[in-house]
Amino acid sequence: MKTNDVIFQTVAKVVFFMIIFFAVHLFFAGHYYPGGGFVGGLLTSGAIVLLMLAFDMKTVKQGFSVDFKWLISLGLLFSAGTAAGSLIFNVPFFTHAYDYFQLPLFGKTSLHTAMLFDLGVYLVVIGVTMTIIQTIGESE
Amino acid sequence: MINLPVLPILIPLIAAIVLLFVSKSVLAQRVVSVIASASTVVSALILMAKVKSDGIQTVDMGSWPAPFGITLVSDMLSILLVLTASIITLCVVLYSFRSIGNGRERFYYYPIVQFLLLGVNGSFTTGDIFNLFVFFEIMLMSSYVLIVIGSTKIQLRESIKYILVNVISSAIFVIAVGFLYSVTGSLNMAHISARISEISTEPIITVLAVLFLIVFGLKGAIFPLYFWLPGSYAAPPAPILALFGSLLTKVGIYAILRTYTLFFYHDQPFTHDLMSLLALLTIVAGVIGALAYRDVKQILIYNIIIAVGVLLFGIATMTEESIAGTLFYLIHDMIVKAALFLLGGIIIYIAGTSNLTKMGGLIRQYPALGWTFLLASFALAGIPPLSGFTGKLLIVRAGFSEGEYVGSIVVLLSSLAVLYSVVNLFMEAFWKTPETPLPDVKKQTGSLFIPAAVLVLLSVLYGVGTEAVYPYVMQAVDTLIHPEIYIDAVLKE
């Protein structure tokens, strides 16, 4: 008998966006409130796993046509690159820079290079989690 | 350039990331690996010249001053070891082209090797005890992948043991660091050292010393914590085994050397006697294994354990002379073990088996390989003027002048056992008439032989040019004997 999971799939579609938004919120809040790249990444991959449960691997792969292993390398490049940027300015390794900017929509915002490092962490966490789940899910 | 000490860590990291991007093309991986390894060696050489002329180099990461941020400290000891590790990795990468096989090459072999070098160089360079733990984990996780890559049955079985032992020892490491932090309130190694010397009479310090000895003893294969090593190291193929045998256990020894010269030098009658006893038992256990087996890999693996024992005995004696001997022997042993494992790999490749009883007569077709192996064997045993001699001489002399007669005699006798085990290997593999005559067709081993021969040549030069190396080693010894130099360089007081 073919199971009918129309309720699950409909709810998953809505909840997916709620989780993603929460993940992005956690990611950007990391500097001043609990959160950051690690939880943000885990939550994002949680959202993708929800879609995988509701639909199947193939459909989700069509939706996200990225190789998650490639995401790991990209994230590492971001983090290492942020840290290595200090080499160009001849300041000690890992020295970060920040300043306050007047942005059109957000008003006075502080921008910090630590965010770029965190972006790398975020991408690596998504990449690693999804690679693990995909590899185990696809192996016979 | 104030970031010089970072480069031997950063280059392998960047290389590994680039290698992950180009994982589809084997040719690109080989080219990037060689370029990256070679530039790591060059950066280490430049850094060594800098340390020689200007003294200890430190980088306060993120511009946070010393006890609050992570500090990378490149003193002469660490840069000598970083240089040796980088050279060995370069040779192993070159050796891997022919021997590791296409399947492994496509499955992230080269990036993992770079990650291993990153972990090893980081462990040698860091000046923060928790950062040391992190670099240990980078090194260990790469070694987990390397031990299982290829997934033959024996590798799967041994990797489970290896991972289990190392996960437990890492957990003890974290507990030990937690204890140390609750006692001293700092994670910066120089700061911890200064704090410990204020409360040196507290017995908790001795407990911590023993706890750290257990942790690093598990990593460095000291009696009775070496039980996992012979099985696990026999599983992976020769180039991986060469990396493990020359780098991984030596990082454990380095950590013992660092912590026992920087932190735990106050209660020497207890801790150093314990270490001395364990060192001698390690030598005996290694000797028994090396003499018992008739298998190329096992004989060489038990020789690692003997060397660990000798090094530990040098640390336990704790005079200027014995520490100098330990350093000489440490660098010699890293180079010559890598060379021996690579040569052993060629022997196994030619004979098609690692069982000594089944091979023989190789000298007729492979004279260069045979004589190089014999040369490496003599260097391992410490025959002058080859590289193993100076280190052992200094260790034994220091032992005698400190009244450690039993220990020194055991070290001397262990050299005989080492010599017997490797020369026996040579005789069986190269001289003996084989049971089944060798095929007439000679296997091509040139591209395998050259990296191994370079290491042997390096070991010979290291032995002959002891006089040239001596000032470098003595500068390293100076920092180890006088921890104030290290503390002042880091805390800048």
From TrEMBL, chain A:
Keywords: Cell membrane, Membrane, Transmembrane, Transmembrane helix. It is a multi-pass membrane protein. It is found in: Cell membrane. Residues 7-131 form the Na+/H+ antiporter MnhB subunit-related protein domain. The keyword Lyase does not apply. GO terms for cellular component: plasma membrane. The keyword Nuclease does not apply. It comes from the Bacteria. The chain crosses the membrane at residues 12-32, 38-56, 68-94, 114-133. It holds the Pfam family MnhB. Belongs to the CPA3 antiporters (TC 2.A.63) subunit B family. This is Cation:proton antiporter.
Automatic annotation (TrEMBL), chain B:
It is a multi-pass membrane protein. Its main location: membrane. It comes from the Bacteria. The chain crosses the membrane at residues 6-23, 30-49, 69-95, 107-124, 130-150, 162-184, 204-228, 240-262, 274-293, 300-318, 338-356, 368-386, 406-427, 448-465. The keyword Transport applies. It is found in: Cell membrane; Membrane. GO terms for molecular function: antiporter activity; NADH dehydrogenase (ubiquinone) activity. InterPro entries: CPA3_Na-H_Antiporter_D, NADH_UbQ_OxRdtase, ND/Mrp_TM. Residues 128-414 form the NADH:quinone oxidoreductase/Mrp antiporter transmembrane domain. The keyword Ubl conjugation does not apply. Keywords: Antiport, Cell membrane, Membrane, Transmembrane, Transmembrane helix, Transport. One of its GO terms (cellular component) is plasma membrane. One of its GO terms (biological process) is ATP synthesis coupled electron transport. PANTHER family: NA(+)_H(+) ANTIPORTER SUBUNIT D1, NADH DEHYDROGENASE. Belongs to the CPA3 antiporters (TC 2.A.63) subunit D family. This is Cation:proton antiporter.
